[in-house]
TrEMBL record:
InterPro entries: HTH_17. It comes from Adlercreutzia rubneri. Residues 94-141 form the Helix-turn-helix domain. This is Helix-turn-helix domain-containing protein. Pfam families: HTH_17 (PF12728). It comes from the Bacteria.
Length: 153
């Protein structure tokens, strides 16, 4: 099996002291994170960047081009965060395995991937589903059938 090549992603964040925690947000991506101290927020920023990069990889998209030398807008400082990311790092199962875990058909898994209910990607002829998205789906699964009368919110 060929190991997928790692990609390095480097982005600039702004890091500032919030009312209750240190906060970091990337300038060129959508997201925000926090930590109890500078070390913690730096680790959280790396985790955020890694997850955002994985999402782009799973969708087969290229993330926005990173730009640098931004002026901090929250009175903070610039923080450069760099991570190595590959789809091999994501715990995954085949679409057939996902169907079995979810108790649905293989075609239903494909439909769930297309509608965004599950996260996954194609690799040649293989379709992979992120295990975390299956776990999230199982945890939030609504009971079958219509809601009972008088149970409306």
């Amino acid at each position: 099996m060929i190991k997928e090549q790692e990609m390095q992603y480097t982005y600039e964040f702004e890091m500032w002291r919030g009312e209750f925690a240190w906060i970091a947000a990337p300038f060129d991506l959508v997201g925000i994170t926090q930590g109890v101290d500078v070390e913690d927020v730096c680790e959280s920023a790396a985790d955020l960047l890694r997850e955002l990069a994985r999402e782009y990889l799973m969708r087969g998209e290229t993330p926005p081009k990173a730009t640098f030398d931004h002026e901090p807008s929250h009175g903070g400082v610039r923080l450069i965060v760099s991570v190595d990311v590959t789809l091999d790092d994501i715990e995954k199962v085949s679409a057939a395995q996902a169907a079995e875990l979810l108790g649905v058909s293989r075609s239903r898994v494909t439909a769930m991937l297309h509608s965004g209910l599950l996260e996954g990607w194609k690799d040649g002829r293989n379709t992979w589903v992120a295990k975390a998205s299956i776990d999230a789906r199982l945890a939030s699964r609504a009971p079958a059938g219509r809601p009972k009368a008088g149970k409306r919110e």
